[in-house]
Amino acid sequence: MHAMQYDITLPADYDMEIIRKRVATRGHLLDDFPGLGLKAYLMREREDGSPVNQYAPFYLWAGAAGMNAFLWGPGFQGIVNDFGRPVVRHWTVLAYDEGPAAAASPRGATRQRRALPDGIPPAEAVAAELARHGRESATEGVVARALAVDPRRWELLSFTLWAGAAPEPAPDELGDRFQVLHLSAPGRRDLPNGRLW
Prior knowledge:
This protein is of the alpha+beta class. It has one domain: Alpha-Beta Plaits. Helices cover about 20% and strands about 35% of the residues. The chain has an eight-stranded antiparallel β-barrel. Strand 8 (about 140-150) and strand 9 form a beta hairpin.
C-alpha cells in the first residue's frame, strides 16, 4: 500500500472558497477510481489558525498501478493545469487501521511527519511507532489512521481522519490540522487493517 500527498500552498489573500467549489464540483470524480483506497480532499486556511492557505489532497493506494494511472492520467493533469506541477510525496504504508468512528464521515485530519531517530536500529524505531499507531488508532473520534515511512528520508508519516474537527496537537507534538472537504473511498473496505507485513 502507498500513501501519497501533494501540498499546494496558496497566497495569503487567496479566496479559499475557490477550493471548496473545486472539490464540490470535481471531488466525486474519484469516487470509483480503480486502485484507490481513499482520497481525503484536505484544506487548511489562515483564517482558521493555519500558518498558510493550502490545498493538500491525501491518498492511500492499494498498489502502484492505481497511483500510476492517476499521476499519468487526466486527473492529475487537472492539478498541473490549474496550479502547476507540485512535488508529490509518497510513502510505503506500514500499518492502516479503522478507528472507533469508522462509520462516520470524516470532517478533520491530522498529519505528523518526523524523522526516524538516529542511533536506533530502524526496525526498533518502527516497532515503537507501530505500538503507538495501535494505541492512537483506538482513540475516540478516529475514523481511520495510517502509518507510513519514506526510507529515502527516513521520515515517518502519521495520518489520521477524525469524525469531528481535527484536535490540536499536544504541546510536544508538531503536526498539521486540516478540514476534510470530501472523501472518495472506492477501495477503503478492501484496505488491509493492521501491520502490513
